Amino acid sequence: EDHRGTVAKPGRVVTLIERSFWETLKDDDDSESTSELVWGAAYRIPLVHKDEVKTYLDIREINGYTVEHVDFYPYPAVLMKTHVKAPEQHQSIKTLLYIGLPNNPNFLGVQHPSDVAEVIAKSKGPSGENAEYLFMLEEALDNLGLGSRDDHINKLSSMVRQILGEQRGQNEQFWLGTV
Length: 179
Hints:
The protein is of the alpha+beta class. It has helices at residues 19-22, 50-60, 76-82, 113-122, 130-144, 151-178, and strands spanning 65-72, 93-100, 124-125, 128-129. 42% of the residues lie in helices and 11% in strands. The strands form two sheets. It has a two-stranded antiparallel ribbon. Strands 3-4 form a two-stranded antiparallel ribbon. The chain is globular, with a radius of gyration of 19 Å.
């Protein structure tokens, strides 16, 4: 299992869950979302690679996820940038999506953002540093299109940057003190 951490010290990643399950969770954070939209990117996979990609994703997402086929509505500006032939206005594309299940052993429920930031700042796994995952997610969401910015992710990223800055400062002071 690789969630930008190790089995003994897992990192944190985004998990999509059903709205009905999300509504049962108690969240004391002030950034409560009432949006019915989930922003993301869909990737067109050539049919010759479909089985290979699906097998890879099934292995990566095997632990506590279900496969759903959902309607994906492309953002017109993104389509224009990529020169992909745009579907008709408001036409959806049927897309495969992995949804987290309530019984996923890695799903921790609601946690305070400062606790999550501490874990992300310290976690590293075979795919890299957990902070790198968070910062790439933040950048992707900020650049997807009008309204795609996620305040929770941006707040979490700021907290992790602050922690990492403090850690670098401590390491530099220690290093300078040993020279």
